[in-house]
Design the sequence.
């Protein structure tokens, strides 16, 4: 069964800059609290590029090999699992607000199978969304205090 989680947030930078941060797996440990490691396998992020990523989540170490399936700077990025304890697909869609800042819509579809045992699907969805809320809020705060940022 697939669990779909979604969350929309704003970042005080242009969509192209938001994309450069969020859609480059090499930068995931900079802003994702649960991400402990990434390794690009095929050079810089691009469509068809593969990467390894490790998360520490719900008391477990989770290792995945993923592929970037869409990579449209400032507009959309999408990735999915090739190998790992379960499969997921993630998407970031970017929009520009009237003031030039970025609106980001995150969608995550996960097929956990029996990996998390008897954990209710609603609880897993809540854990995923809460992690993105926390991570995106921290990133937005850090970007607001950067020199030269209007936000």
Sequence:
């Amino acid at each position: 069964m697939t669990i779909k989680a979604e969350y929309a947030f704003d970042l005080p930078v242009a969509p192209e800059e938001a994309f450069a941060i969020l859609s480059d797996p090499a930068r995931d440990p900079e802003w994702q609290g649960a991400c402990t490691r990434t390794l690009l396998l095929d050079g810089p992020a691009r469509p068809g590029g593969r990467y390894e990523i490790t998360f520490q989540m719900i008391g477990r170490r989770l290792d995945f090999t993923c592929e970037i399936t869409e990579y449209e700077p400032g507009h959309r990025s999408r990735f999915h699992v090739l190998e790992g304890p379960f499969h997921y697909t993630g998407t970031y869609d970017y929009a520009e607000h009237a003031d030039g800042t970025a609106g980001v819509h995150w969608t995550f579809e996960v097929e956990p199978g029996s990996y998390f045992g008897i954990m209710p699907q609603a609880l897993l969805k809540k854990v995923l969304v809460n992690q993105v809320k926390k991570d995106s809020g921290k990133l937005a705060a850090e970007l607001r205090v950067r020199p030269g940022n209007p936000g």
In short: The first strand starts at residue 3 and ends at 11. Helices lie at 15-22, 28-31, 121-144.
